[in-house]
Amino acid sequence: GGLSFKRKRVPAEEYFLVSTLPTYFLEYTMRNAAKASLWLAAALILVSCSSKSAKVVERADDESRPDWAKVTVPSYENDGKKFFVGFVEVEGDASRSAAMNMSDEKALSEPMRALVDNFMDQNQVGESLRRDGYFGQRIISATRGFRVPMPSLTIVNRYWETVLDGPHGATALRAYSLAEISAADFEKAKRAYNDRLTANSEVRKILRDVGARQRNNVLNAQAEQN
Q1: d(C-alpha 119, C-alpha 129), whole Å
Q2: pTM for the whole thing?
Q3: What is the pLDDT of residues 9-34, one digit of tens each?
Q4: Can you name the residues that pair with 81 across neighbouring β-strands?
Q5: Whole-number mean pLDDT of the chain?
Q6: Distance between CA 134 and CA 31 in Å, rounded?
Q7: Can you list the alpha helix ranges (DSSP code H) found in 53-200?
Q8: Computed from CA positions of residues 148, 98, 96, 93, in that sequence, does the dihedral angle turn out positive or negative?
Q9: Could you say which DSSP state residue 179 is in?
Q10: Which residues contact 100 (CB under 8 A, 6 or more apart)?
């Protein structure tokens, strides 16, 4: 039958202590940033395939897919709040509750990943260096154990659906979770995280390494042109 869901308040002790499960997903994502950078392309393929062949055979409470459950729009802002979507796809006979927990954690890790991306933006870390995930992982490791206060971070919605996956009757379970945080809390977290990173000697070394790597990339590109 359908899986009902009520608003879930995240316990304070889970707020992005880097050793907690949400940050495991963040570190996994940054370690695999080459794949993460292709997330949107993969999402577009998934949507395209879904529209052509993936037939929904069961879904949460027999509802239609909610507007927010889109892997092509992983985050958005509305009415003074920021929203982040978590998504996982597993085999159709996998545990539904486990899949939902995984998508919850993915959604809860997205604000932190956005903070890391923002910091790299501010420090002009190029896209090519982001794709290998090396520097993002080092930045996270440099502040291991630092709590980023996000008191309003909450899972506010969930959705799941089972779809036919392939020509032989195999199915896939898709789970979506929506995390919400006030824009004000997110901005406070961003300032706190940036201040912490800026004052960290290891992070300063990382940024020097970034600059050196990017200069080498430019010189190598120029040498190839000549």
Answers
A1: 14
A2: 0.69
A3: 433 333 333 333 444 445 444 444 44
A4: 78, 182
A5: 75
A6: 7
A7: 96-122, 127-131, 134-142, 183-198
A8: positive
A9: E
A10: 3, 158, 160, 175, 177
- 111 contacts 180 by C-beta, under 8 angstroms: no
Cα R_g (the chain), whole angstroms: 19
Q: Give the Cα separation of 212 and 152 in Å (integer).
A: 39
CB-CB contact of 119 with 193 (8 Å): yes
pLDDT tens for residues 93-127?
Answer: 999 999 999 999 999 999 988 988 888 777 766 56
Measured in Å, how far apart are the chain's first and last C-alpha atoms? Answer: 65
**From CA 9, how far away is CA 82, in angstroms rounded?**
16
Residue 62 Cα to chain centre, angstroms:
27
List the one residue out of 20, 171, 29 whose CA is nearest residue 90. Answer: 171
- 178-212: per-residue pLDDT in tens? 999 999 999 999 999 888 888 888 888 877 877 77
Nearest to 70 by CA among 165, 180, 176, 179: 176
Instruction: Count the residues in the chain.
Output: 226
Token match 């502040």: residue? Answer: 143
152: nearest Cα among 5, 7, 4: 7
Q: How many Cβ atoms from other residues are within 10 Å of residue 91's Cβ?
A: 11
